[in-house]
Amino acid sequence: MWGCEVVSCNLIMETLIIEPTVGYMLKVLKSGKKISKFKDEFAAIRHGDYFGFINMIKEPIPFMISYKNGVVAKEVEAGPNDCDFEGLYKAGPSLKLFYSDCEQQYGKFTDQDITDLIFGKAVLFEVSLRMHANNFGLLEKREILVSVINKLSSYKNLSHEDRTSLHKGRRFINMIKHFKNQFETWEIGIKEFKKGYRVLVNNELTIFKEPKSE
């Protein structure tokens, strides 16, 4: 699934730190707060540039044993050619520190329109699309999400309806980042986003396997 095999006892816990971390930053963006201090770090992790992100934060990578091309090895550093899932795992400690720094800067607060769960799903939506598309060798560096969706939809032979739902999910994320009345209400946007996320689940395009829905 990810182009490499990685073994670690803390794999799931470390990896999913991206959900609350980047979800928090999306919440900050929606609130209208300026993120110029963390703009480069935020852009790197959203676009799947884990190697670049780790080099910005500079936290040590966690213990990892990898299996690549028949060779078992202990991973001691991040590399620009790491597969997406490997890079995401290695970025775990840097993500934790980044989250702490962001929360110290902006504080804890609640959004009145979107739950933290939906913010987290919005993160997984974009990361999952990029991870799978990159794993299939479809992407150039930091490709825009509209292109990611189109390329992955064509590669997976998704229906026009499913492709449209993915783009509506993308529009909802854009509504969080840059509110331009993409949907009439946040409630409608959330409903359409959930449909888009369901397309990922039903086509096994999420980071971890989730139960399919009707």
Can you describe what's shown?
The chain is mainly α and 214 residues long. It has 2 domains: 1-109, no CATH class; 112-214. The protein contains 10 helices and 3 strands. Helix 7 packs across helix 8 and helix 7 (116-135) packs parallel to helix 10 (186-202). The longest helix is centred in the middle third of the chain and has 20 residues, at 116-135.
Residue runs with pLDDT of under 50 for 5 or more positions? 5-15
Distance between the termini: 24 Å
Oligomeric form: single chain
Overall radius of gyration:
17 Å
What is the tally of beta strands? 3
Please give the structural blueprint.
Layout: E1 5-7, H1 11-15, H2 18-31, H3 39-46, H4 50-57, E2 64-68, E3 71-75, H5 84-90, H6 92-106, H7 116-135, H8 145-155, H9 160-177, H10 186-202
Antiparallel strand pairs: 1-2, 2-3
In short:
The chain has about 210 residues and is mainly alpha-helical. The protein has helices spanning about 10-15, 20-30, 40-45, 50-55, 85-90, 90-105, 115-135, 145-155, 160-175, 185-200; strands at about 5, 65-70, 70-75.
What attributes does this structure have?
214 residues, mainly alpha, three-stranded antiparallel β-sheet, 10 helices, 3 strands, 57% helix, 6% strand
